[in-house]
Amino acid sequence: MACQGRVAVSVFTDVDKELFRKEIYPLRKPAVLKGVPLGPCLEKWTVDYLAAKGGDREVKVHVSSVSQMDFLHKNFIYRTLPFDKFVQRAAAKAEQEEFFISKDESYYLRSLGEDARKEPADLKKQFPDLAQDFHIPPFFEPEQFFSSVFRISSPGLQLWTHYDVMDNLLAQVTGRKRVVLYSPQDALHLYLSGDKSEVLDVDSPDLERYPNFVKACRYECILAPGDLLFIPALWFHNTLALQFGIGVNVFWRHLPLDSYDKKDPYGNKDPVAAARALQALERALGALDELPAEYRDFYARRMVLRIQSRAYSNET
Ligand SMILES: O=C(O)CCC(=O)C(=O)O
Ligand SMILES: [Fe+2]
């Protein structure tokens, strides 16, 4: 059945590993899991506690003059702050005394590994004292673990729609967060630029520029503190912090280890076979360029038909 309007993400309570592996994981659909024990972080992670325990190690943060971050027009910059200062600034209710761009700038932290270009983030390594307070849900096998990442946002901050290549458990620890998701099968309606959608305003999209966006089925949920969102690999997600928010996401491998790019600290590089296929496509397009426009158009359409009949799993 066609999707009409919005679809609420399914909510599950009392989920244990068995239920997750049998009833939720195989569906490859997002799910909100309520009441999964996440440890003492739920009570402990106040701004003061985080600042004290997280210490003053330097973190690289996104700083944006407006709350909707725009990767197309780069309305944000990266700056480095000590973790404790960053947390205080992101949680601030009033205008910033010290600022980079403007008094009402927004902040977003996606924590990184020790050597950010090589190593995935791991809370246990970068924030050992805080990592103790967060209990990673035991729903995956330990060898599937890829990374654990702090997600800390100013109130109102919106992160663009993108996909990651790992399965994800996104835990909301404090603050409420709205998450809008789209199926990988809706990729044709999302106006992709690499791993991101060019449609920044998912609530009132520019339909003259992006007419097919209305065809994408919008899944939505609001995460409250203590909620866990399962985001299967390749599902697009757009997050909006309704309040100052602290989250932790844990990425897990879904495919065998050697399906993934070995140099992928973020968990968003396409699997090696997919990257090879995309490269081959670029070569094919280069060959089409040797033809006059009329022929190029015709053979491009034939290629689309071939791809559809050979590789799509169904008629969507
Ligand atoms: O929580 C957020 O703000 C973004 C989360 C995200 O993109 C992820 O967990 O992959
Ligand atoms: Fe993500």
Automatic annotation (TrEMBL):
<protein>
    <submittedName>
        <fullName>Uncharacterized protein</fullName>
    </submittedName>
</protein>
